[in-house]
Amino acid sequence: MDVIRVSDPADPRLADYTRLRDVNLRRHLEAEHGLFMAEGDKVIRRAATAGFAPRSFLLTERRAEALDDVVAASGAPLYVVSEETAERVVGFDLHRGALAAYHRKPLPELGEVLAGARGIVVLEDLVDHTNVGAIFRSAAGLGVDAVVLAPRCADPLYRRSVKVSMGAVFTLPYTRLDDWYGGLDTLRDAGFDLMALTPGEGSLPMREAMDRLDADARVGLLLGTEGDGLSSRWLERATSRVHIPMADRDIDSLNVTAAAAIACYELSRFGNVAARDHLG
Amino acid sequence: MDVIRVSDPADPRLADYTRLRDVNLRRHLEAEHGLFMAEGDKVIRRAATAGFAPRSFLLTERRAEALDDVVAASGAPLYVVSEETAERVVGFDLHRGALAAYHRKPLPELGEVLAGARGIVVLEDLVDHTNVGAIFRSAAGLGVDAVVLAPRCADPLYRRSVKVSMGAVFTLPYTRLDDWYGGLDTLRDAGFDLMALTPGEGSLPMREAMDRLDADARVGLLLGTEGDGLSSRWLERATSRVHIPMADRDIDSLNVTAAAAIACYELSRFGNVAARDHLG
């Protein structure tokens, strides 16, 4: 195992770990170098299990032992630093004491992600990494088969998304549409009923809309930007518009992660019902 | 209307607005002075509509007009500041340009909050203000009647909770138990079936547990701390343990706001079903 003690926060070998809270810098750096960050023992283990290749590990003394096996199996360099050095490199108190830089894999083809999928989530232009991570966690936990992202949706492999997803971004298949304008037509051509989640007029309660579907339908759940929701283009190209009924006139919608959780829950229920019908 | 232009960030009249991101300072200051912060036009309007009394308003020039009516009707002083002064007082770029300090009201008695309530949410020791706010928004939107907090649960009137709740913390009745240890017994004595949401062993799928309830049951949904969940004391004093079935073995639970959203959704469904039974 290649253990390298580093005390200079400016050491170029630590460049992957620079200023983790500087979103603009990180976006640029991670895209350019094709890397992403895993933080904390659990998430690092999950990245390893999911078959991602590490570039390096950055651990504080306290943490180095806990990840011994993962580091040893990887062959990647391990940089061991003091808590002070860690803080100066990453820009905040790294109280979990464990970071790893991983190589990204190329995103799969859309056809590969859709093959065999019954229920998928399609995210338009979400901007908040926490929301993207939370939606991946809910989608994976509730049995959604895949996630498809619009070209401008926030990155699921951004550190914050990875962390909030509890590593679900490593295991739930996903890819990105390369065409926003025509993207939904591609999904419809693949046989998906596209349900746009929107509190707007003319939308059906989600459960009612699901009851109208064929038992073997393939369903894509469309979720839009925080605040403004889905674009008019996507609303227009959806197969139907659905909403979660609200009881309180002052609260006209849920936040996107709450709405996504309920919608994925309904989707999993639909999937189960359909599966049971097939069996019977 | 009492318009006061202030250019000195250290002006004592702006003391309510000091260092809004300093959680420890703010907790202390807000508790001591019985105040809370509303941020942004929409939330400020909702606080006013809900009958809270403002102590003062802090608006940038650009924003002063948009809240003209609210300020005029209140009789509270309006401090108009430049964006630079605002930033130096509150400690970040106040891009929404609108803050108001409001007086808290005394929390209602538990009996008052529970009167007539069919479905309530009971939060144990949640620490994250964003989560508390999001749960209030979901609970209000989905028709939950009230929220009851354990003594140490994070404050729903903390700025971040208020904001994320979209003002639901102003309209959804809530109070705090003054006894953590015996608190659940008080709720049981009031006739509530207490469902502890927990992924642990021996818990029923939530929907199944709901199906077993009497149609006129009063239900309290118990949600625990981020990470560790409910305490063993509360698990022990619950009427039943329920979970949301997970499809993915690697994801053994949802985050607490996603779980709360789904649980409130099921609760509202149960309420509707029961209501229909009564009608029929």
Automatic annotation (TrEMBL), chains A, B:
This is tRNA G18 (Ribose-2'-O)-methylase SpoU. GO terms for molecular function: RNA binding; RNA methyltransferase activity. PANTHER family: RRNA METHYLASE (PTHR43191:SF12), RRNA METHYLTRANSFERASE 3 (PTHR43191). Keywords: Methyltransferase, Transferase. CDD domains: SpoU-like_rRNA-MTase. Pfam families: SpoU_methylase. One of its GO terms (biological process) is RNA processing. It comes from Nocardiopsis metallicus. InterPro entries: Alpha/beta_knot_MTases (IPR029028), Ribosomal_eL30-like_sf (IPR029064), rRNA_Methyltransferase (IPR051259), SpoU_MeTrfase (IPR001537), tRNA_m1G_MTases_N (IPR029026). Residues 120-265 form the tRNA/rRNA methyltransferase SpoU type domain.
